[in-house]
Write a structure and sequence with these properties.
The chain folds into two domains: 2-249, 3-Layer(aba) Sandwich (Aminopeptidase); 259-323, Beta Barrel (OB fold (Dihydrolipoamide Acetyltransferase, E2P)), CATH 2.40.50. Helices cover 24% and strands 28% of the residues. The protein has seven helices and 16 strands. It has helices at residues 2-11, 61-74, 91-96, 118-136, 171-179, 195-203, 227-238, and strands at 19-22, 25-31, 34-39, 48-53, 84-88, 142-150, 158-162, 184-187, 206-214, 251-260, 266-268, 278-280, 285-289, 293-296, 302-305, 316-323. The protein has a 13-stranded mixed β-sheet with strand order 1-2-3-5-4-6-9-7-8-10-16-15-12, with helices on both faces. A three-stranded antiparallel β-sheet has the order 11-13-14, with no helix packed on it. The chain binds the ligand O=C(O)CCC(=O)N[C@@H](CCC(=O)O)C(=O)O and zinc ion (ZN).
């Protein structure tokens, strides 16, 4: 069942059974695209992990990666040793191979959300699933990796965004991420209402958005490049201590400014295919907005991440970051 779960979810097909056995434990299908894995033996030091993919429908590599891990589990090559909630985010957007259908799901994870419609309703269901999952394991360390791929190339193809929240990130996270092939870290400077931010802000979870290369259609991803990341996910499923490496091998950045699209008449003043983390010198004009005016780099150089002039009005059109020291 596990190896077919992704296809069944996307076909909106009713599975033969909503629960069953797997090596080391059981699975329960709570709703379309929401699958809980429960270990038979509760290792006291294993994390309770949320692994989410497909929050954006065109970001397929994480879906394939997680699918391979679940297939290995079902085949008995792995043994479940920790509670894991597996989430396929925006099912309809995945079916359409689009980033979102009506609005960006990854801006809706807040408890005071009032909007209705497909993506807001899905956000509410996913928040509820995370709340009930973590409530079942109050004594455990919590973890949430929300796996994405980026629209454009990047000076660092694999990087994480650390959401802004009071909960401190444990040093071991940097070690695990470095060993999993992550090349750069971007610390957020303010609340962002993404899925990983939700878990960190409301549940004091170790949480990150992981960017694992470029967004490509199903079948076009090179999963060999993500083999170290697969090993990290497998360790979490088995409740084993993941491999570690020196955090200093990653490059650290902190967001200095969030560039917002304020008007219809908005444009970015650099090429569409500019890679993430491209640095612009003081004096460079980065954006023009009929309402907010031009944005010009001042002081120290700024590196641009996730530039996208086509975002919804009032949404983030780019993050602007500066290098920072690795955490102690
Ligand atoms: O490549 C892009 O422009 C977007 C890739 C993506 O979906 N990134 C996430 C980052 C979430 C975060 O800031 O933690 C997003 O924009 O939702
Ligand atoms: Zn994404």
């Amino acid at each position: 069942m596990l190896s077919e779960w992704i296809e069944l979810s996307l076909e909106d097909a009713t599975p033969k059974s909503r629960s069953g056995k797997l090596p080391g434990g059981t699975y329960t299908l709570h709703a379309a695209g929401i699958l809980e894995l429960s270990p038979a033996v509760r290792r006291y030091d294993a994390h309770a992990s949320v692994l989410s993919v497909g929050i954006h429908g065109n970001e397929t590599a994480p879906i394939e990666l997680l699918g391979e891990c679940l297939a290995r589990l079902e085949a008995g090559l792995l043994t479940l040793g920790a509670p894991v909630l597996v989430i396929l985010g925006n099912l309809e957007a995945i079916r359409r191979a689009e980033r979102y259908v009506n609005t960006n799901l990854n801006r809706l994870f807040r408890r005071d959300l009032v909007e209705t419609g497909m993506e807001p309703d899905r956000a509410r269901l996913l928040m509820h699933a995370v709340d009930t999952f973590f409530a079942r394991y109050p004594e455990r360390e919590r973890l949430h990796y929300d796996l994405h791929t980026a629209i454009r190339d990047s000076r660092y193809p694999r990087f994480v965004v650390e959401p802004y929240a009071d909960a401190a990130t444990h040093h071991e996270q940097w070690r695990w991420l470095a060993a999993a092939g992550i090349q750069a870290v971007l610390h957020q400077h303010q609340h962002s209402w993404t899925f990983s931010h939700y878990s960190k802000h409301y549940h004091q979870t170790q949480a990150f958005t992981l960017e694992l290369g470029r967004a490509l259609p199903f079948g076009h991803n090179d999963l060999a490049e993500l083999a170290p990341m697969a090993r990290l996910l497998e360790a979490l499923l088995e409740g084993r201590e993941p491999a570690g490496a020196a955090p200093e091998q990653m490059v650290f950045f902190r967001v200095a400014h969030e560039l917002m699209r304020r008007s219809h008449d908005f444009r970015l003043c650099f090429a569409d295919d500019t890679p993430n983390f491209t640095e612009f010198e003081p004096g460079a004009r980065l954006a023009e907005d009929a309402e907010a005016g031009p944005f010009i780099v001042e002081g120290q150089p700024l590196s641009v991440v996730f530039p996208n002039a086509a975002v919804e009005l009032g949404a983030r059109a780019a993050l602007l970051a500066r290098p920072t020291a690795p955490p102690d």
